[in-house]
Structures are given as C-alpha cells and as structure tokens.
Amino acid sequence: MFDTGITGFMLLATSLVMLMTPGLAFFYGGLAGKRNILGIMIQSFVSMGITTILWFVCGYSLCFSGDACGGIIGNLDKAFMHGVDLNSPFPGNTKLPEFVFIAYQMMFAIITPALITGAFVNRVTFKSYLIFLVLWQLLVYYPFAHMIWGGGLLAKWGVLDFAGGIVVHAIAGFAALASVFYVGHRRDKESPPNSVPLIAIGTGLLWFGWYGFNAGSALDVNAVTGLAFLNTDVAASFAAITWMVIEWSIHKKPKFVGLLTGAVAGLATITPAAGYVSLPSAVIIGIAAGAVCYLAVNLKNKMGWDDALDVWGVHGIGGVLGIIMLGMFASKAMNSAGADGLFAGGSHFFAKQCITAAGASVYAFLFTYVMLAVINKITRVRVSEADEDLGLDASQHGEKAYDEGVL
C-alpha cells in the first residue's frame, strides 16, 4: 500500500528537520553572551517538548484537518490523532503514511517559534516564553500553516510557499521585530558572541538539516525533490559569498560570522521557492539574499532596533524576499504543480505573493506585540535589571554553560 522508498526518504527528511532545532540552539548559543548561553539554548530545546505535546493534542488537526472560519483554520476532527491509524494514507500522496506526514510537519512547528527567540535574547523570563510559545503557535503559526499548506484560504486563492517563506520565516521574523519593540533594549548591547566555533557548528547543522526542510517538502521522491535540494545548496552558497564580499569591501577583512550569517539568509530566502524555480533563478535569489539581508541588518543597526541575533533581517526579510522572488521566477516548466511568475507572464500570481507577504508580516507583527502585552498582565515578560545583569543562565535556570576555570 505504501511506497517504502518515499516513506524512508520522508523519515530521513523528518530527522534532518528535527536536527535543525538543536542546530539553531547552537547557532544562537554561540552568538549570545557567555552569561546567556543556556538561557537561549533551552528556549529552542523546550519547543521540542511543548510543541510536540501541543501538536498531538490539537496542532496537527487545526493545521491539516477540515476547514473552519472561512478557511483560516482547520477543525478538531483529528485532535489527539483521532481517526489516524497505521493504514491511514496522507491525502496529498497516498503512497505515504499519514503518521510520517504528521511527524514531518511537527518539526516545522517546533523550529518556527524557536527562531523568534534570538531577537530577545537575555531579556525575557522563561515562564512568559512558555506562554508565548503556546499562544503564538495557536494564533499565528497554525492559521498560516492551514491557510497555505492545509488547503485553506490562501491556498485556494493561489498563493504558493514551497517550504516556509511565509509559514516559517516571514511570520517568525516580523514577530521577532515586534518582540524587540515591546521588550526594549538590552542593558548591555555590546556583549560579543561567546563562541564563533559554536556558531559554525550551528550553521553546519542548519544547512545540513535544510536539505530535509526543502527537498522533503516535495513530499515525494522525484525530479522536483532533486531540484529543491540543489537550489537550496546553490542559494545558500551564493548568499554566503555575497555577504562576505560586501562585508569585506566595507570592513577590509573577511568576517567568518558574516559568511555564516549570509548562508542562513540564503537558506531562508530560497525556502519558499526551492521547488518552483530553475537553478539560474536560485543563483539570483541567493545573491539577492546576501545583499538585501545584509542591508536589512545594517538598517536595523542604524535604527537602533535591538534585534540581538538579527532574526528580522535574516529570517523576516529573507522570507518576504523569497516569497516576492518566487512570484517573479516561478515556472510551471520546473514544477507543473506550481505557477508561472512575473517573468513568465504571471502578473496576477506575483501580486498575490506580494500581498500575502505583506499581510502575513503585518499580522504577525501586530498580533505578537499585543500578545506580549497580554502575557505581561499574567506574568512579567521582561526580566528584572538585576537578573539581566546576572545573566539568564544563573538568574532563570541556576546553571552556567562553562566552568569558570575554562574561561
């Protein structure tokens, strides 16, 4: 009944996407100051537990079961995995067990809110973050996952997002910017990264896992799977070198952290387009990602926005840029299930992509800001000045990343 090759590949892709969340923890952990390494890393790891519970209880059902509220959200028919058994096929590809699709999509739900945490590193209480983690998924991630990937409102309108430009990166990036505005500046904004090698390890794990993130989103094993895989690597590579060259020309030295950040920007930007565009288009998208995301981070610095780990500039702007460039470069010649973009005569499709990118970003920003204000009525969102000065590792968790004799 089920294809063992497709099932095996999707289990591998699921494992790769799972690995991205620890990779993100290492990436952020290296960028954080030495008093806040564990504080930022636990925010990624705890999502693996909380999100899995929430996904089992209602998340999968709200994203991929039925249609409610005019196609904005699903229903609860599959809450607690009701009606799903060993013989249940995934409706989008009956050669794949639904259990595998459930696991694969759960990994996306796990990493998306974790992306936001880099923006407010060392400023947010752990208790408030746990509330944020649950509410943000219920009211931001699940609706967009349903509207685009679950056959909801935006899917019916014709919007495309191969692996998460809107559903993951745009909404997480603009939610991160809202959290920066709400929570405010760090008391110590000059805290340098504690470990560049740790950033490199995190980047390597993210890049490796991203093949499952993008190629796996084909939900099959065919030429589109290979296209998405290769486009992912090409865009990341061109973006990394573009970022490095720009920074080198300005600061007169090639920066390793810049190279790594550029790679992540390229990965985020190609994500929505990976299975819909040609290889030359992926090259252009990668170059644009390296340049535009670099400029976005510079703009953030000039504006004084304390997005500590550049979540908005890399993921928010990268996700929006990817959705817009998908609207430009998409081609049915590459994927018959896709669309023709602006350069192939698809002006209406291009307009839909732009409108959706803008609307999703605005919603994520406004809702996140309001939600943090509501959470602050329940429990304090920002840590005290004394706790911030001490560091979240000690003040929130009573632990430290390294023995002091090593430092």
Note down, in words, how this protein is organized.
The protein has 407 residues and is mostly helical. The longest helix is centred in the C-terminal third of the chain and has 32 residues, at 347-378. α1 (4-31) packs antiparallel against α2. The N and C termini lie far apart (57 Å). It is built from 14 helices and 2 strands. The chain has one domain (4-397): Ammonium transporter fold (Orthogonal Bundle), CATH 1.10.3430.10. The protein is 68% helix and 2% strand. β1 and β2 (93-97) form a beta hairpin. Strands 1-2 form a two-stranded antiparallel sheet.
Describe the structure concisely:
The chain has helices spanning 4-31, 37-64, 98-116, 126-149, 153-157, 165-183, 196-215, 223-251, 256-270, 279-303, 311-329, 347-378, 385-390, 392-397; strands spanning 89-90, 93-97.
Helix/sheet category: mainly alpha
- Give the number of helices: 14
> What best-fitting shape do the alpha-carbon axes yield?
globular
Beta-strand percentage? under 5%
Order of helices and strands: HHEEHHHHHHHHHHHH
| Whole-number count of domains | 1
How many angstroms does the end-to-end distance come to?
A: 57 Å
CATH architectural category: Orthogonal Bundle
- Sheet with most strands: strand arrangement: 1-2
The CATH fourth-level homologous superfamily: Ammonium transporter AmtB like domains
Percent helix among the residues?
55-70%
Q: Any low-confidence stretches, pLDDT <50, length ≥5?
A: none
Strand count, sense and barrel status of the largest sheet are: 2 strands, antiparallel
| CATH fold-type name | Ammonium transporter fold
- Mean pLDDT across all residues, rounded? 96
Give the tally of β-strands.
2
